[in-house]
């Protein structure tokens, strides 16, 4: 039967372990969700575990079951998985079928899968095979872990994170957009970690011109994001990093240009709103999340449209820019989720 019975402290411990394992797939499993799985024997001992390590590779259940010693009777085990086992053939066979085939009779699931290709069908396969299925253990934690995936499935758009660094007196750049070093070394390292966790990173024209950013990962291990640039008139000079062909880059423009050297140009019709075109393009590319690093015009446009899920502000306690600088986007928001010190900077996270 399927139920949402009260879970024991041991059940909670096992699912927390599965969620921790799932997080190891951050940056690599996308656009698939991060999934972890653990197997406990009849005595509650952990005898197998795994996670979805890479898109196109074996799913968490496959890796977890493969790690269980041959002498263990899986019919006497309880399997904990952070997301409903898949029921369809994709790049790998259905995990629900694998669990049934291996004789698993007891499954605990954190979150149901909103993907229309699954959406309860995985649980139905297990139930039809006579498995006991329990759902909803640490459901909120699981949704937060896979908030990008759930946003894409439920809202049909990527998860947007707006990020900026501002001085102690509320500016993001000097006069005329002149770059100013605002964040300390620890905050810069944290930003590079964030870049590994999101599928794409976006900037507007002024930031691209003034800062000449690379938008890659240099101070943390992990994959580079897809670079997204709004450049209405193709004002970026060929010498700028964003046109160096070093990583995939999509440029949204109202001019005409030929794709080349890892660069893709998406033409926005004259007088058209950029946002719908960008959203349609990101959905077509299966982009799950976008880290928006600036500048204020782009941030304000997204804020006005209500197109954000998180805002991360790094505020310096030591750097001041003074009158004439570029003012940071105004924040009069509730929903402060986190506040902590990062070296000489303060991090504020709104959700």
UniProtKB/TrEMBL annotation:
Q: Where is the signal peptide?
A: none
EC assignment: the record states 3.5.4.26, 1.1.1.193
Requisite cofactors: Zn(2+)
Question: What single Pfam family name could you report for this chain, choosing any that match?
Answer: RibD_C
Please state the pathway this protein functions in, per its UniProt record: Cofactor biosynthesis; riboflavin biosynthesis; 5-amino-6-(D-ribitylamino)uracil from GTP: step 2/4; Cofactor biosynthesis; riboflavin biosynthesis; 5-amino-6-(D-ribitylamino)uracil from GTP: step 3/4
Enumerate the Gene3D superfamilies for this protein.
Cytidine Deaminase, domain 2 (3.40.140.10), Dihydrofolate Reductase, subunit A (3.40.430.10)
Give the top-rank taxon of the lineage listed in the UniProt record for this protein.
Answer: Bacteria
Tell me how the cofactor is bound: Binds 1 zinc ion.
Give every CMP/dCMP-type deaminase domain span: 9-134
Annotated function: Converts 2,5-diamino-6-(ribosylamino)-4(3h)-pyrimidinone 5'-phosphate into 5-amino-6-(ribosylamino)-2,4(1h,3h)-pyrimidinedione 5'-phosphate.
**Family, similarity comment:** In the N-terminal section; belongs to the cytidine and deoxycytidylate deaminase family.
**Under what name is this protein listed?**
Riboflavin biosynthesis protein RibD
Q: Which organism is it from?
A: Hymenobacter koreensis
């Amino acid at each position: 039967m399927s139920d949402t019975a009260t879970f024991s402290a041991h059940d909670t411990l096992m699912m927390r372990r599965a969620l921790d394992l799932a997080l190891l797939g951050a940056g690599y499993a996308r656009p698939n969700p991060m999934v972890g799985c653990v197997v406990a024997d009849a005595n509650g001992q952990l005898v197998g575990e795994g996670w979805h390590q890479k898109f196109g590779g074996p799913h968490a259940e496959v890796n977890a079951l493969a790690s269980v010693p041959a002498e263990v009777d899986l019919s006497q085990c309880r399997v904990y998985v952070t997301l409903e086992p898949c029921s369809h053939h994709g790049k790998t066979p259905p995990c629900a079928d694998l669990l049934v085939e291996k004789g698993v009779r007891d499954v605990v699931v954190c979150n149901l899968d909103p993907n229309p290709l699954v959406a309860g069908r995985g649980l139905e396969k297990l139930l039809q095979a006579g498995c006991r299925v329990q759902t909803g253990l640490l459901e909120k934690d699981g949704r937060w872990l896979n908030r990008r995936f759930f946003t894409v499935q439920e809202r049909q758009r990527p998860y947007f994170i707006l990020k900026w660094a501002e001085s102690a007196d509320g500016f993001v750049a000097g006069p005329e957009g002149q770059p100013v070093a605002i964040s300390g070394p620890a905050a810069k390292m944290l930003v590079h970690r964030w870049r590994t966790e999101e599928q794409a990173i976006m900037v507007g024209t002024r930031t691209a011109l003034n800062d000449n950013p690379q938008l890659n990962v240099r101070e943390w291990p992990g994959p580079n994001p897809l670079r997204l640039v709004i450049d209405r008139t193709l004002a970026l000079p060929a010498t700028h990093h964003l046109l160096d062909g070093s990583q995939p880059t999509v440029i949204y423009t109202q001019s005409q240009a030929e794709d080349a050297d890892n660069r893709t140009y998406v033409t926005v019709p004259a007088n058209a709103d950029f946002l719908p075109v960008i959203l349609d393009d990101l959905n077509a590319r299966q982009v799950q999340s976008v880290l928006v690093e600036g500048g204020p015009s782009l941030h304000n446009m997204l804020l006005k449209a209500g197109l954000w899920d998180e805002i991360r502000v790094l505020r310096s306690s030591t750097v001041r820019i003074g009158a004439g600088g570029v003012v940071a986007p105004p924040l009069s928001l509730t929903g402060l989720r986190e506040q902590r010190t990062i070296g000489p900077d303060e991090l504020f996270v709104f959700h």
